[in-house]
Amino acid sequence: MAENSDLLAFVRARLSEEERTAQEAGGESWRCPAEAPGEVHDRTSGIAFVVRNRGYDRHIALQDPARTLRRIETNRVLLDEYEEIASMDTDRPGQDFASGRAVGLGFVVRQMAAEYAGHPDYRVKWLPRYSHWGPPAAPGA
After folding, report:
1. H or E segment at 8?
2. Is the CB of residue 64 less than 8 Å from the CB of residue 30?
3. Cα-based distances in Å from 67 to 17, 64, 75, 125
4. Rounded average pLDDT over 21-29
5. Residues 119, 1: Cα–Cα separation, whole Å
6. Where are the extended beta strands (E) located within the chain?
7. CA gyration radius for the chain?
């Protein structure tokens, strides 16, 4: 299904952008030494930057380039798994395991895409969809 291919391409492109940004930031881990509140240090213990305000330092350190790169690799594994069965991710999936897997992975990929909903290339039709799993309704029900 072309729509799912476009969705995959969109998420892959956003991950590549994040990857470049993380690599440009050195691709390394950051930390906040207890003895230097507000400072974020790189792997050489050099001060990467200082943010002495409301715990931003700890939050920023958790978003370090190395962690971002690990998350991107994990997301790419999910995308690769989905790509194999994306054509089975439809509004009316079958009741078999492969169809359920496609819909489940499709939900995850749509959630990933929703992180970038503010991007100009994001399409509202990629919002996660929900399916009812169960026996077909009886006629007249």
Report:
1. helix 2-24
2. yes
3. 15, 5, 12, 30
4. 85
5. 22
6. 39-41, 47-50
7. 20
In b/e form, how buried is each residue of 127-137, taking b as 16+ CB within 10 angstroms? eeeeeeeeeee
pLDDT score recorded for residue 55: 74
pLDDT at 86 over 90: yes
Q: Which two tokens stand for residue 127?
A: 């919002």
Output the six-digit token pair for 121: 């290339």
Please enumerate in sequence order all residues whose Cβ is within 8 A of that of 118, keeping only pairs 6 or more positions apart, or say none: none
- pTM for this prediction: 0.78
Confidence band, pLDDT 50/70/90 cuts, at residue 133 = very low
| Mean pLDDT, rounded, for 107-136 | 82
**How many whole angstroms separate alpha carbon 101 and alpha carbon 112?**
17
Chain-centroid distance of CA 23 in Å reads 17
Q: Please tell me the total number of residues recorded for the chain in this structure.
A: 141
pLDDT of residue 43: 77
